[in-house]
Amino acid sequence: GLSYAIWAFMERIGLRHGADPAFVEMTLAAAIVASIGGAAIAGAIGNRWGQLKPMVLNQVGLVAVTWLLALNLGDTGFFTGACMMMVFFMAWSAHQWAFIGALDSVGRATLMIPFAATASGIFGPSVAGYIIENLGYNAVFIYWTVATASVIGLNILASSLHSRRLRHEPANRSQEQYS
């Protein structure tokens, strides 16, 4: 829900920066088109470097872009930030979903990805709206940065625990579910 939390308020962020409403609308449409680039990049990378490294790099990119949006660098900064946010978001999403699939030996968590994505699209903006209402936009950017850092830490921990588990399982155990 972290990226949804920011994306839900992109129009307001653009207007807050003084951008013309027509420019904001065009920027958001361009950002959606730019998101195809993130999915294409993730597809091109595939599993070449595993899922964790590209996932973390994209999360760091999302944090950097969020702060670019917070700095109010005018129309060019807003356009660049919105487009790059969607590129990083789509690349991160693809690697995150592959990461979950790799860790999920039973398949339950993988099947819950659509539910989790939908729920995060509801709760992320709700929390962000509450924070904006009570503390302002900068508080959302700080919350988003801290929450993303926590998610990165949890992903690294999950990867470490999964690697440790794999070292102690018989080699063919992961294929039992397919036989």
Task: Explain what the structure shows.
- This protein is globular.
- Helix 2 crosses helix 3 (21-45) and helix 7 packs antiparallel against helix 8 (137-167).
- The protein is an all-alpha fold.
- The relative contact order is 0.16.
- The termini are far apart.
- The protein has 8 helices and no strands.
- Mean pLDDT is 86; it is low at 175-179.
- The chain has helices at residues 2-7, 10-16, 21-45, 52-70, 74-103, 108-111, 113-135, 137-167.
Distance between the termini: 36 Å
Structural class: mainly alpha
- Overall mean pLDDT stands at 86
Figure out the total of helices. Answer: 8
Which sheet architecture does the biggest sheet show?
none
What is the radius of gyration? 18 Å
Helical percent range? over 70%
Estimate what percentage of residues fall within beta strands.
under 5%
Silhouette: globular
Helix-strand pattern: HHHHHHHH
What's the β-strand tally?
Answer: 0
- Unreliable runs: 175-179
Describe the protein's topology:
Layout: H1 2-7, H2 10-16, H3 21-45, H4 52-70, H5 74-103, H6 108-111, H7 113-135, H8 137-167
Helix pairs in contact: 2-3, 3-5, 4-5, 4-8, 7-8
At a glance:
With 179 residues, the chain is an all-alpha fold. Helix content is 81%, strand content 0%.
